[in-house]
Amino acid sequence: MADQPFQLDGQQLAKICKHTLPDHNDELILAKLQSLNPDYPIRLARTGAEWYRLGGIVDMDGNRIANDLIEWTERTYIECGKNLQTLIDHAREQKLIATRQTGNTLYFVIQTGSKAEQFIQIDIDKTHEMSDRLLVGEQCPPEDLEEFIDPLDPECIETFCIGTSRYSYRRKTDVSIFMDEINKYHIKEHPAQRFMDDWNRSSAQQKAALCDDWIVRPFRHTGRFGEQIINVEIINTQQKNVPQLDDINGKKGTSLHTLLTRFDRQAGYPFAWFFYMVKGKLVSPHSGVAVFKDISGDFSYLPERDVAVLKDWINTPYSV
Fold first, then answer.
1. Which domain of life is it from (predicted)?
2. Which of 17, 130, 234, 315 would disulfide-bridge 320, Cβ 3.0–4.6 Å?
């Protein structure tokens, strides 16, 4: 790996996003990130599923009235003397249109070392704004502010684009540092940490970088006593045609080994089936049990390092 530390903090990344016009394949922003860090290969690992959220308000000609529908509604409601009917009449008279933000999250990864957790992940949202509905339709007027903001039965209109697509910076995660932080809040080893530790001591680590196929999704949730808990999910980014490994009933020895080998070959690295199994993706936990019975008997087709990982999983199973 390069001797120079990876450059770019959150402010710089936000600036790059602001000044980069999205293209179809996101090659321009990738090129910008790469040019500022030539020592580290940067890769777009995953484009997340499309999501949408409430947008702003425009008039019938698409002219901007407000960027934030919720803020505008709450402020204008006060200006209308907290009279909902006055607010409804105003929205109808002006023929205001509510918009929605539609987008995807792009996940860029930068490997910084040979260990599983030694990578940086940059999450960037790519969004575009669309017209959604009349702010207040002629039928079914809202009964309260909540329904005004997000009606159950909206009066939709013909969709049109508002402005151009844009990037917005979400977060940068130095996974190694982040996992150190996660471990402070968990008495037992966190499943994601164990996943990475298992990767580091398995034959997968000899042939592939974890961030080639897996990324992280940091998130917070509230504990039962109201405390904020930092957590993380491991997400698979594999785009290859990896087979479902469920046809193992009655298989053992050479035939079982052949199934595992085929799966690993298509995944791109050895012992891949184990990590897919721990994630609960394509491989059933029954596979792990069957393989362990196999290698505990007459057959020996796993490297010792992988046998040790599998044995620990059998003794104390986990999933991510």
1. Bacteria
2. 234
Q: How many residues in the chain?
A: 320
C-alpha 263/C-alpha 260 separation (Å) is 5
312 is written with which tokens?
Answer: 């620990």
Q: What is the pLDDT of residues 187-219, one digit of tens each?
A: 788 999 999 999 999 999 999 999 999 999 998
Reduce the DSSP state of residue 176 to 3 states and report it. helix
Task: With H, G, I as helix, E, B as strand and everything else as coil, classify residue 47.
Answer: strand
Q: Report the Cα 22 to chain-centroid distance in Å.
A: 19
In this structure, the dihedral spanned by the alpha carbons of residues 229, 191, 46 and 220, taken in order and rounded to 10 degrees, is 0
Within 133-271, residue ranges assigned H as helices are 145-149, 175-184, 191-201, 204-207, 253-267
- Phi/psi region, residue 282 (left: phi>0; alpha: psi -120 to 50; beta: rest), is left
What is d(CA 257, CA 12) in angstroms, rounded to the nearest whole number? 49
Centre a 10 Å sphere on the Cβ of residue 174 and count the other Cβ atoms it contains: 17
Predicted TM-score (pTM) of this structure? 0.85
What is the biggest distance separating any 2 CA atoms in the chain, rounded to whole angstroms? 82
Q: Are 12 and 41 in contact (CB under 8 A)?
A: no
Convert the pLDDT of each residue in 68-96 to its tens digit.
Answer: 999 999 999 999 999 999 999 999 999 99
Residue spans of alpha helices (H) in the chain: 10-18, 27-36, 69-79, 84-94, 145-149, 175-184, 191-201, 204-207, 253-267, 272-279, 285-296, 304-315
What's the one-letter identity of residue 124?
I
Q: Which residues have CB under 8 Å from 310's CB, separation 6+?
A: 274, 288, 291, 292, 295, 302
CA distance 15 to 18: 5
Identity of the amino acid at 157:
I
Taking alpha carbons only, the member of 224, 222, 300, 223 closest to residue 256 is 300
Q: Tokens in use for 208?
A: 């592939």
